[in-house]
TrEMBL record:
<feature type="transmembrane region" description="Helical">
    <location>
        <begin position="80"/>
        <end position="107"/>
    </location>
</feature>
<dbReference type="Pfam" id="PF00528">
    <property type="entry name" value="BPD_transp_1"/>
</dbReference>
<feature type="transmembrane region" description="Helical">
    <location>
        <begin position="119"/>
        <end position="138"/>
    </location>
</feature>
<dbReference type="InterPro" id="IPR035906">
    <property type="entry name" value="MetI-like_sf"/>
</dbReference>
<keyword id="KW-1003">Cell membrane</keyword>
<keyword id="KW-0812">Transmembrane</keyword>
<feature type="transmembrane region" description="Helical">
    <location>
        <begin position="20"/>
        <end position="41"/>
    </location>
</feature>
<keyword id="KW-0813">Transport</keyword>
<dbReference type="GO" id="GO:0055085">
    <property type="term" value="P:transmembrane transport"/>
</dbReference>
<keyword id="KW-0472">Membrane</keyword>
<comment type="similarity">
    <text>Belongs to the binding-protein-dependent transport system permease family.</text>
</comment>
<protein>
    <submittedName>
        <fullName>Putative aldouronate transport system permease protein</fullName>
    </submittedName>
</protein>
<feature type="transmembrane region" description="Helical">
    <location>
        <begin position="275"/>
        <end position="294"/>
    </location>
</feature>
<feature type="transmembrane region" description="Helical">
    <location>
        <begin position="192"/>
        <end position="214"/>
    </location>
</feature>
<feature type="transmembrane region" description="Helical">
    <location>
        <begin position="150"/>
        <end position="171"/>
    </location>
</feature>
<dbReference type="GO" id="GO:0005886">
    <property type="term" value="C:plasma membrane"/>
</dbReference>
<keyword id="KW-1133">Transmembrane helix</keyword>
Length: 309
């Protein structure tokens, strides 16, 4: 009782030190938010500003000469919408298959009655430190018949070792009494995984899903290696990279002063700086729109971790 009164008195106590702490705490958090948001807002301003005017610099949070020419130039490419569809398709399918398969393997190696759990775990962990290299990977993909195929985006990354360790650690924190009760009721491993493990592991699965989705969405190098000769399998990131390269090539023979001096073509002109900013916004918005739907699972995961601690 005395301890409760002490904590209650401490909680209700507010002096100069408390106000000073709140002041510095709020100031630091506001400063941190500004530091984190400013680069993105600056890219939004540059992408909405006239391209040649952006070369002068001095654009911070608001475009100096507003225009949508940069976005019209990017979306004017005929293949951009089909590439966007392929990116969405590979992100959705790749995330679902990777998280599901990784969770199944994580559940398997988390069971203490599985004889080969240590061997399988070590075999997976070794792949995090030892890699065959680019050429052996390419030859392997070729021998598997995955070249010029959509499944080259899905199969090679179907098991993520880091995500495997994270999910396994979370599953090991689930009370064994739940698994024992399910076994007594006649549930097999698959039923236990579907009806017990998956519902209880939603926080960690949501976190891993975001990691995998961001990786799938931002990936373009695998398109360059395995599907560069198949335009109908090109992704949004790869098409944006080609647009940037074309913009760099068109500006290679011009200086910034030459670009700004040509006032007649200035309104319809794009520069690598404006294209790069526009690409950043286009590539970031889908992930930013998905994050709020997963945020509640992050909060729930932190709460569970606090209770277990």
């Amino acid at each position: 009782m005395k301890q409760r009164k002490f904590f209650k008195a401490t909680k209700n106590h507010s002096g100069a030190g408390d106000y000073l702490f709140d002041f510095f705490n709020y100031t630091f958090m506001i400063f941190l938010c500004v530091v984190m948001l400013y680069p993105f807002l600056n890219q939004v301003a540059v992408s909405l500003n006239e391209a040649t005017d952006s070369l002068k610099g001095g654009i911070f949070l608001w475009p100096r000469i507003f225009t949508l020419a940069n976005y019209k130039y990017v979306f004017g490419e005929a293949s951009i919408f089909h590439a966007f569809f392929i990116s969405v398709l590979r992100t959705v399918i790749g995330t679902l298959t990777s998280v599901l398969c990784t969770a199944m393997v994580a559940y398997t190696i988390s069971r203490k009655d599985y004889v080969l759990r240590k061997f399988v775990t070590i075999a997976f962990v070794i792949t995090m430190y030892i890699n065959g290299g680019l050429i052996p990977n390419y030859l392997l993909i070729k021998d598997l018949g995955l070249l010029d195929s959509f499944w080259v985006y899905i199969v090679p990354g179907i098991i993520g070792v880091f995500n495997l360790i994270v999910i396994r650690s979370f599953i090991e924190g689930i009370p064994d009494s739940l698994f024992e009760s399910a076994k007594i009721d006649g549930a097999g491993d698959f039923t236990t995984f579907i009806k017990i493990v998956l519902p209880l592991s939603l926080p960690v699965l949501a976190t891993v899903s975001l990691f995998v989705a961001v990786g799938q969405w931002n990936s373009w190098f695998d398109v360059f290696l395995y599907n560069s000769s198949t335009p109908n399998l090109s992704t949004l990131q790869y098409e944006l990279m080609k647009i940037l390269q074309n913009s760099n090539a068109s500006m290679s023979g011009k200086t910034a002063s030459d670009a700004m001096a040509n006032t007649t073509a200035q309104a319809n002109m794009v520069t690598p700086t404006s294209i790069r900013a526009t690409m950043t916004i286009i590539a970031s918005l889908p992930i930013i729109m998905v994050y709020p739907f997963l945020q509640k699972y992050f909060v729930k995961g932190l709460t569970l971790g606090g209770v277990k601690g």
